[in-house]
Amino acid sequence: MTLSMAIDLEKCTGCRICELVCAYHLYKNFDTRFSAIQINFDLFRIPIHYQIKNQCDLCQELAIPMCMSFCVSECLHLLRG
């Protein structure tokens, strides 16, 4: 079974916490340029756009990916397929 990540754009606030925790998980820093998830939020452009890069490992060593654990709007979901 393959897992992938999806974002419910109706719930996403654009806070970018997922980017911060992802960058920390992958590279032990908080530079969002290194995050596997990229949220492109602009107050003048709706909806929010996002990209999940190939380097996303869904935090395989954890029961729940860090981005999902820290997401305050609960907009991140795992898709099984």
Can you characterise this structure?
Helices cover 20% and strands 30% of the residues. The protein has 81 residues and is an alpha+beta fold. The chain has one domain. The strands form 2 sheets. The protein has a two-stranded antiparallel ribbon. A two-stranded antiparallel ribbon has the order 2-3. The longest helix has 11 residues. The N and C termini lie close together (6 Å).
Write the layout of secondary structure elements.
Blueprint: E1 3-7, H1 17-27, E2 37-42, E3 45-52, H2 66-70, E4 76-80
Summarize this, please?
The chain is α+β, with helices and mostly antiparallel strands and 81 residues long. It has helices spanning 17-27, 66-70; strands at 3-7, 37-42, 45-52, 76-80. The radius of gyration is 12 Å and the shape is globular.
